[in-house]
Amino acid sequence: MVNNRTDRWGTRDHLVQARGDTGKSRKPGSNEVSPCSEEDREHTSSKCMLTRRNPRPREDLQQRANNGFTNVMSGKFRTYLQYLLCAILVLVIWCSTWQIYQVPKQRLNARKTKTHLLILTSWRSGSSFVGQLFNQNPDVFYLMEPAWHVWKKLPHAPPKLLHLPIRDLIRSIFLCDMSVFLPYFSQNKNISNVFMWKESRALCSPPACPESSIKDLLFRAQCNKKCGNVSLEKMEEACRTYSHVVVKTVRILDLEVLYPLIKDPSLNLKIIHLVRDPRAVFSSWERVIFLGYTDAIVSKAQNSKTNISVVMEEICKAQEQTYKLALRKPQPFLKGRYVMVRYEDLVKSPVDHIRELYDYVGLTMTPMLESWIYNVTHELLLKEKKFSKNSMKVA
């Protein structure tokens, strides 16, 4: 019995049962296969085999071999291509991962080479003196009260609302991005518009001011004459050349506002929190007549006469809250990032305390700076002793 079907080569296979000696033999040169006998079909133990008829001549066999070789090579090429695509994909993923981890590495390198210091305090607490301790160091780029621009621009806003733009301003300064000042400038875009710019030694000396040749610590008059037209771009370039960027501010009344800056991987922030006897602060505040709008913002009494007692109460609350957050219940990320200094201790033994502060931020004391500190603190100590005697009488 013969079964005909079409195979995958497009030919017809004749499946037959064949037996070598009893069936009809294959004719020489013939493609036909003799079928098995009727007797063999009736027995299940027949030795007949299923045989595929090969209708192709020898030339077709060669063609099939060539096609098979081509198919094998095509298969190898596809496999190679798959491996190549996988390798490219792995390389892309690796490069992406490397870039992801390379950014923090670059930031860590930046943190090793640059230190950002924020002097955090309140009004009339000796912050100008502490700021000058760092300003006079040739490795420091110092700005005094840049947050003044925010308060001046928004004089009717409460302090808590002003904290966020102040924080952004300080962060940009730490990163030497001085374009942050542009919204606060109405006319020319020179450093002469920056609040208290003449107090910055860095802005009054090369490279910020190439025409200046400051060699001593008394430079305001010379600076005002030669350096006022320096652009903000030049200010940025100068900032990047210093190992330390120091900012002093009295306008942040909440330490928690600074937490994002402390945790910011692009910054290497350290905080010096300067505190002073409130009685001395009150006495100094009463003698100052130009803090009217500041009093109004702190006391939130824009439409009435400011009460100095209310202002002092707000300042004392802020200092107490900062003390609790930093020393009583400190967050882990504050370790090595925060230090509190009493102004009275600083004045009594200035050189020792200032050396400790310099070690804290990674600065070196110079002989010229040490001499300047001695002369300045000697005068301050005399004033402090005089106030202490008067305060004892009041007590």
CATH second-level architecture of the domain at 114-176 and 240-394: 3-Layer(aba) Sandwich
CATH superfamily of the domain at 114-176 and 240-394: P-loop containing nucleotide triphosphate hydrolases
Helical element count? 14
- Proportion of beta-strand residues: 5-15%
Low-confidence parts: 1-34, 49-54, 96-111, 389-395
Mean pLDDT: 73
CATH class of the domain at 114-176 and 240-394: Alpha Beta
Helix content: 40-55%
Named CATH topology of the domain at 114-176 and 240-394 = Rossmann fold
* Mass-distribution shape: globular
- Helix and strand composition category: alpha/beta
Taking the sheet with the most strands, its summary is: 5 strands, parallel
Distance between the termini: 129 Å
Gyration radius, rounded? 43 Å
N to C succession of SSEs: EEHEHEHEHHHHEHEHHHEHHH
Strand neighbour order, sheet with most strands: 5-6-4-7-8
Number of strands: 8
GO molecular function: N-acetylglucosamine 6-O-sulfotransferase activity
Domain Sulfotransferase: 115-383
Family: Belongs to the sulfotransferase 1 family.
Enzyme class: transferase
What does this protein structure show overall?
With 395 residues, the protein is an alpha/beta fold. Among the domains are: 3-51, no CATH class; 114-176 and 240-394, 3-Layer(aba) Sandwich (Rossmann fold), CATH 3.40.50.300. It has 14 helices and eight strands. It has helices spanning 38-42, 58-113, 127-135, 148-153, 159-174, 220-226, 232-239, 259-262, 278-286, 292-299, 308-328, 343-348, 350-361, 367-394, and strands at residues 3-6, 12-18, 49-51, 115-120, 140-144, 244-249, 269-275, 338-342. Strands 5-6-4-7-8 form a five-stranded parallel β-sheet, sandwiched between helices. A hairpin with a 5-residue loop joins β1 and β2. The longest helix has 56 residues, at 58-113. The radius of gyration is 43 Å and the shape is globular. The termini are far apart.
